[in-house]
User: Which sequence fits this backbone?
């Protein structure tokens, strides 16, 4: 347990947070750092579940969801962004420049235009090719298993980047960015941009972010529940375990269902957990810069 602390979902995030940690440890704010981490993933075409590399809906149309949060009164989110490559920055503008907490669809894109963010194509050529290949198979839109087993083979099958930080001044922030579920029904929004579902930050109680099948996370307000349990005295590990157990109790789980969370306390304790094996997360603090297996795996 130590602060500053930077923690993020999936092993692909380690190189991103390794670059950002020194800034967090110096004068960088937690909010700037979590936004930048999401922005890097959003531009990386090799990440097929976030930003520019993200896979489209079943009609071949790409939409992005994102959120940022520093406290219950301070959050911003966008869903269904179609013309801007950095939904996390649009979410931050919503938080900082409006009295609101969420903007949706083309109106969120118009808002980004008004604030000078460049309008761009967001469906990458690689994502388009993957969609065309999927269309040929004529199979139902079941997403591939979410595995991060280090073999490289399935590395493309990860999900949302969720990042949590505590800066040198003790301020906490979180960000979450996703292109949503591959081949989704047009208009579908997952957990990532919904405060309390894919992301929740309360400086008095802690922070949590989720990844995996958004509908499962949303059904139990997953990130809020973890933070609430920590606020009532649970360790991050126990809070994640109890939240995953609650989810498993509520849902008739299918083999392709995967959900994972990372969580931190205001003091810098952290943990991660997943419904099934295959999830990894990245941690940077003054002692380590590592990819770790979750301490909790509900169904091993
Ligand atoms: N966790 C991302 C999504 O379901 O959209």
Assistant:
């Amino acid at each position: 347990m130590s602060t500053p602390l930077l923690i993020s979902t999936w092993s692909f995030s380690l190189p991103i947070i390794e670059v950002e940690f020194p800034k967090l440890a110096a004068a960088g704010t937690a909010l700037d750092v979590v936004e930048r981490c999401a922005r890097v993933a959003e531009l990386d075409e090799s990440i097929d579940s976030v930003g520019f590399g993200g896979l489209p809906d079943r009609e071949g149309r790409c939409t992005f969801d994102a959120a940022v949060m520093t406290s219950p009164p301070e959050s911003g989110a966008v869903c269904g962004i179609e013309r801007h490559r950095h939904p996390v920055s649009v979410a931050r503008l919503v938080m900082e420049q409006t009295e609101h907490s969420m903007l949706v669809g083309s109106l969120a894109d118009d808002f980004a235009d008004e604030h000078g963010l460049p309008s761009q194509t967001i469906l990458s050529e690689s994502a388009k090719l993957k969609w065309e290949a999927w269309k040929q198979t004529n199979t139902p839109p079941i997403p591939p298993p979410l595995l991060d087993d280090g073999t490289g083979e399935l590395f493309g099958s990860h999900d949302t980047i969720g990042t949590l930080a505590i800066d040198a001044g003790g301020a906490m922030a979180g960000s979450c960015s996703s292109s949503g579920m591959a081949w989704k029904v047009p208009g579908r929004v997952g957990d990532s941009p919904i405060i309390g579902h894919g992301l929740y930050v309360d400086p008095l109680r802690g922070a949590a972010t989720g990844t995996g099948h958004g509908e499962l996370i949303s059904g139990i307000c997953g990130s809020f529940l973890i933070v609430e349990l920590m606020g009532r005295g649970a360790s991050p590990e126990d809070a994640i375990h109890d939240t995953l157990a609650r989810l498993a109790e509520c849902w008739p789980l299918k083999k392709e269902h995967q959900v994972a969370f990372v969580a931190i306390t205001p003091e810098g304790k952290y943990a991660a957990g997943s419904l099934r094996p295959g999830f990894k997360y990245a941690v940077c603090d003054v002692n380590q810069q590592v990819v770790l297996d979750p301490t909790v795996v509900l169904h091993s």
